[in-house]
Amino acid sequence: MISAKIRDNVLEIRPVTQDDLDAVLEVYRLCEDFLALGPVATASMDMVLEDIEMSKKQGGVFCGIYTADGKPIGVVDYVPNNYQGNPQAACLCLLMIASPFRNQGIGKAVVEAVEYEISKDTRVTTVLSGVQVNNPRAMRFWQRTGYRVISEPRLRPDQTTAVDLQKDINRMV
Question: pTM value?
């Protein structure tokens, strides 16, 4: 489990279990404005399960983001090391914050907490991510959190067009 603090509130970031699936689906439903930017605009349990399975295949940790009282407010999926066979690379693969909880600093706090967790592996020197080119708010978010664009836009297997992002790890441990 990872903790993130936003003002005086503590968020819990922990791997999703079978018992969490309905709550995660509800988060996905509250993120359909984001999903609408891609090929499938409507959240479904199949989508949730496919994302979890893809995370496992990449060596990822698919987590729910919860308030101190256990309310699910988002998801974050990250590969802590050895991303795409590179032991020095990690990846923040997915970050979704439910619409009622956006613009409160939660995304930034979650990214910082996950980066801190990733930085515990001293082999990791860089964190990668990606953002769809049709999502300018997300692009601004990632750039404000220190990520820089490192590729031209390209069509991804899921039929979205995205750019790759990178941030060098600052040792925080």
Answer: 0.91
Paired tokens of 118: 């990733």
What pairs with residue 69 in β-bridges? none
Q: Which of 52, 69, 70, 56 is nearest to 16 (CA)?
A: 52
Query: How far is 32 from 27, CA to CA, in rounded Å?
Result: 9
Give the model confidence (pLDDT) of 115-173 as tens digits: 999 999 999 999 999 999 999 999 999 999 999 999 999 998 888 899 999 999 875 44
Q: Which domains does the chain have, with CATH numbers?
A: 2-168 (3.40.630.30)
Question: In 3D, which of 113, 151, 116 has the Cα closest to residue 132?
Answer: 151
Closest CA to 148 of 158, 160, 140: 140
Q: How far apart are CA 107 and CA 126, in angstroms?
A: 19
Residue 51 structure tokens: 């994302």
